[in-house]
Amino acid sequence: MSFSNAEVFWVLLLLIPAGFLLYRSYLQGKDELLKIGGEWRGRRLHAVYVIKGFFSALLLVATFLMLITAWAGPSWGRAPVEEPQDGLDIAVAVDVSRSMTSNDVLPTRLDQAKELVRTLLSSFPSARFSLVAFEGIAETLTPLTPDRDVLTRWVDELSPTLVTASGSNLAVGLDEALRTVGYSALHHRVVVFLSDGEARDGNALASARKAEAQGIEVFTVGFGTLEGGRIPDKEGVLKDDFGFPVVTKRVDGTLAMLAQETGGKFFLGSDRAGQRQLQDQLSTLGNPGARGGVGLESVPQYRFFLFLALVTLTGFLLVRILPWRGSF
Fold it and tell me: What is the value of pTM for the model shown?
């Protein structure tokens, strides 16, 4: 079983104050029953009250759990689905961290990435594109759109100052890119991920598996050199806490993993032949005659938990409403 929105399980923390309120309500009800029913009848009523209170609370908590589980988007199993007949939706995620300003490739890593994005925009005039910039966090600059003028203007603006949080987190960039194409059911969906591969935070493998579960291929492009380069700074080059220049290197392993886990492919940004292969791959995906007509997707199972929630809620109402032993 997998969950598309596993973070909603944090809502279960509300069970702590809810349990406190239920217990407080039980104590108040117990005192009132003893006052109303007297010593003998009050104890008899209290015995029924404990049983009904226990089962009603149990069913109410179960209803809450079922609703939260349904909200988390559970899925299991695979079902054949007809693939989109035509069209291509491309989410482009561009790393704008400071390491991308290194000029170990000319003019800079980021400039090469921007040039590749412009090439893709011109090579696929009928495709829709979304544009995501990321470093410590990710920002969607444009949702899916066919408007090349808007996309081109945002490509020109790509820089480390575009995102407020510094750092290097590949996972948030991929997650945001997936979100921009996640609800596109009519077109074939892909992510083109442009980065030098350096990452200090995030779980890139988990994000790649999420893309694979959604049937979205990720094509990664690595910029920079394995020998590395320095990062420009106001005072010349960026230095570490000991005063030594910071050297940033291209990391192929993570980028290759993202592509491999999702059925995509890894390319080098400085390799013109590789860039042409990337365009050929995307052209193949956009051509319905070159793709199979049926694919496998995870089956959403939230309805099952909604049904269980309805059953437990009905049980809760019956326990609360129906009298027992002629009492309440």
Answer: 0.62
Tens digit of each residue's pLDDT (9 = 90 or more) over 87-122: 789 999 999 999 999 999 999 999 999 999 999 999
In the chain, domain spans: 2-76+300-321, 84-291
pLDDT digits (tens, 9 = 90+) for 163-181: 878 788 999 999 999 999 8
| Phi, psi (deg, nearest 5) at residue 123 | -80, -20
> In DSSP terms, which residues pair with 300 in a beta bridge?
75
Q: For 39, what's the count of Cα atoms within 13 Å in the CB-facing half-sphere?
A: 0
C-alpha 301/C-alpha 310 separation (Å) is 15
Residue 8's CB: how many other CB atoms inside 10 A? 15
CA torsion 187-278-154-160 (nearest 10°) is 130
DSSP string, 227-254: S-EE-EETTEE-B-TTSPBPEE---HHH
Residue of 188, 198, 162 whose CA lies nearest to 87? 188
Record the tokens describing residue 296, joined without a space: 């496998």
Residue keyed to tokens 């005659």:
289
Cα distance between residue 146 and residue 135, in whole Å? 25
27-51 residues labelled b (16+ CB within 10 A) or e (exposed): eebbeebeeebeeeebeebbebbee
Say which CATH class 84-291 falls into: alpha beta
| Residue from 175, 170, 179 nearest 201 by CA | 170
Quick count: other Cβ atoms within 10 Å of Cβ 3?
16
For residues 163, 166, 170, 173, the Cα torsion angle rounded to the nearest 10 degrees is -20
